[in-house]
Amino acid sequence: MNGIEALNSLALRDFHGEATNEHFHAATYPRVIIDVVLNPNTQTEKTNEMVMSCVHWGLGQLIISRNFVEAYVSCLWDDQVVATVFYEKPQTAAARQNVSGSAAAAAALSNSTTTAIINATATNEVVMPAFIIRPDSQTIPLPDVFLMANNVFFGLADRDITDTVPTYLEIKGTPGTQVSMLFEPYSIRTRAPYFEYRWLFETVRQMPAWMLARGRFCEVSIGVLVDRMHVGNGLLDKGQVGRPNFGEWSVV
């Protein structure tokens, strides 16, 4: 879950902006830390795109292998190591910064940003995704749900977060999973709020935790409400997504 939170935070930033050392540690998931340590010994310009690519790839490998162990990933860009991403327990991260020979990493992290997990509800708008399990919803393996979320964040991270989501935006899952997601605005709105990418990211951020709390990972229909206004719809679907017949969502 901490990986999903980290990807959401990164997706909300300027994709081509300058990267910084990061320390992702969500209060709600305290047992895992994701540290990003930039390599100070290379002159290559380091961007959020590089960090996002590395975090995305590392999480994907951990999920696909179903081997959730401590790991680190060296990020190569133009044949140069530009950063290292650590997936660790808090005690391991602390030890890494203090052991002999890790002075560079410790110094880098001492200047890092301890990233409070950023989500769309940190703004004035209130985002309330409504997830609905249909009577015919098929079960989806837990790893496939997390891989799908991983793909959504990485696949759309280059978009301006305040741009409006287009009609019929489909995101394919990892090959072999046969899972897809579909999003589109609800009708044509003439005034704010609109269905923006930041609201899409917040919806996907909440989805795995919502399923985990209910003990069921399966297909869902999604209504996205911002400030109690129905702005968008979505589907998590097993197999090829077809054109759905979305209804209207409301908050009571």
What attributes characterize this protein structure?
about 30% helix; alpha+beta; about 250 residues; about 25% strand; disordered C terminus; 6 helices; 10 strands; five-stranded mixed sheet
Structural account:
This protein is of the alpha+beta class. Helices cover 31% and strands 25% of the residues. It has helices at 2-11, 48-65, 90-98, 103-110, 142-156, 197-214; strands at residues 22-24, 33-38, 71-77, 80-88, 113-115, 127-132, 169-172, 179-185, 220-226, 229-238. The strands form two sheets. A five-stranded mixed beta sheet has the order 3-4-2-1-5, with helices on both faces. Helix 1 runs antiparallel to helix 2, helix 1 runs parallel beside helix 5 (142-156) and helix 2 packs antiparallel against helix 5 (142-156). Mean pLDDT is 83; it is low at 100-123 and 242-252.
What's the tally of helices? 6
Based on secondary structure, the structural category is alpha+beta
- What portion of residues belong to β-strands? 15-25%
Which geometry do the CA atoms define? globular
Biggest sheet character: 5 strands, mixed
Radius of gyration: 19 Å
Sequence of strands across the biggest β-sheet: 3-4-2-1-5
Average pLDDT across residues?
Answer: 83
